[in-house]
Structure prediction request, 227 residues.
Amino acid sequence: DTGVSQDPRHKITKRGQNVTFRCDPISEHNRLYWYRQTLGQGPEFLTYFQNEAQLEKSRLLSDRFSAERPKGSFSTLEIQRTEQGDSAMYLCASMDGTQYFGPGTRLTVL
Amino acid sequence: AQKITQTQPGMFVQEKEAVTLDCTYDTSDQSYGLFWYKQPSSGEMIFLIYQGSYDEQNATEGRYSLNFQKARKSANLVISASQLGDSAMYFCAMREATMDSSYKLIFGSGTRLLVRP
Prediction:
């Protein structure tokens, strides 16, 4: 499968714990995006990389969130000290002109 | 700021019939692009169709077509010959420029389509 992959697909954690998600983009795509989708809403932009450079961050991305793409290939999104409001689907996309999305990581914070 | 409005939270359609999902947008840009994505219950966002603001023809991709009315700022998705597998959430999105001349997507709230057998 040569599409965007995300791991894990589901994550249940307790409030206050740290979680990390991984995204592997389509191999030749140098642009990678993270979005967050809460129940009943469309996805909202969080941050964006071109190669290893993080070029833009949304104000939704509080200081508890950090994203990296160290070698310009896969990316990780870490949430520290999770809160119940962080419960959402976290979607990754990579782009060659059109954004192609992965299956998402569904986070539940208890 | 860009804004996408989808006013239909849910729609029903009979199998094999056509259905139109509404999308209106707001932008002050002269050049813009509009997308439709499908999200089945599995969660993945599947790209369906794209319309550029300067495209003279309405976009079509198989059973999907986009009814683009620039003066009305609408970009409705038409699905012809509905199939049971079309049951999903459908999102309209607009391209918003990022600092390096790429773009991020601004999404509407979506329409849930249910195809009846």
Notes: The radius of gyration of chain A is 13 Å. The first strand of chain A starts at residue 5 and ends at 7.
